[in-house]
Selenocysteine synthase
Amino acid sequence: MKLKSLTVAMFGFYFTSFSYANQTVHTVDVDAATTQMEAASDAPSVLIEPPTGTVLDIIPETIDSAPTILPEQSNHKIVPPTEQTKEDSWWDRTQDKFSNSLQKRAHSINDWFGEPDPNEPAWATLRLIVDTRWDEYDDFSVKPRVRGKIKLPTLENKLSVVFGDDSLDNEIRDSVAINNENPRGNPDETLDGEQVKDDNSSLALRWSQWKNPWDIDTDADLGVRSGDDVYARLKVSKDWDLNNNFSTHAEQIYRYGLDSKDYLRTNLEIRHARPQEAFLSNQLSLTYTDDNFEQNFHWDNRLYRQHQFFHDHWFNYGVYTGGDIDDNQPELDSYGPFIGWRQPFLREWLFIQTEVNYYNDDDLDRDHHVGALLRLETWFQ
């Protein structure tokens, strides 16, 4: 498939989603107003969510009819606040010291470009991640990952510096999966140091908050990745609130690197979420790469239900499907169930996330098999 036609097709898919979402909202606006007026006449304090007028309305009806034995949703905190624990141990003092040093460095860099505004101080965040994977075919693999951002308000409050593993920014917002689209590296090594170094060596200047009449969020990056791959990257995203507690989130990403060449990705999520209830979501991604030697076009889809039993926690379960796209025809190469859990561990800034799945892989002639993933993540901010 030629890149030009693919680009048009994927951007067409993206903005068709925009149009469909807006059309859905406008189509039911009259009915929504009528329904709410009728509801108001009988019970003024109750707001009834009108239907979307589409097949999506079957989803909440099905959810309502299904029994559940799981606990109710909760935002109760199970770990003490950072301010309370920052002097409790060597780990706490180190985390607090490093977080403060990070903010001081952000302020120092911000001062280079002009007079800082006390009401809009510079800030920085840093994610440190260690992903561990296991399955019976590939055995164990460990990948440390880093992603940081420094916000510089003196540069018209639009520019920031981003560094580390840029593939983390390609994942859809609130991604349910523990993913890593970077090459695995040497399969004979549990930890491939050279591959880890390449994956985490991205550095870029990001321009955000473009003004536009469509309320579309934009990020434009210019930087270097994998050591010497100079690249430019554009990401646009938009949200819509539909009726009947449905919402849509869409992202389009295009990156061109002098070495890596073309990278194009579409992320789309449709979610049904009622207040104080578990939500149902479908996350779809389409990814195309072309380095002038090989072209790859792949799709991934995850349909899942997610619960929150306490603050910063999730428990989810669902079905994954995915495969290659050849000659405009998607192939089902891999599918199976998964179950995941994430929670803060002992501190607000430390997280543990697990996933167990049962997938096959027709491309590699692998039958369904158990896979396990573990993510340890800490934040400095």
Notes: The chain has one domain: 3-380. The helical segments are 3-27, 29-42, 58-65, 82-85, 90-111, 193-199. Confidence is low (pLDDT under 50) at residues 1-46. The CA atoms of residues 184 and 195 lie 8 Å apart.
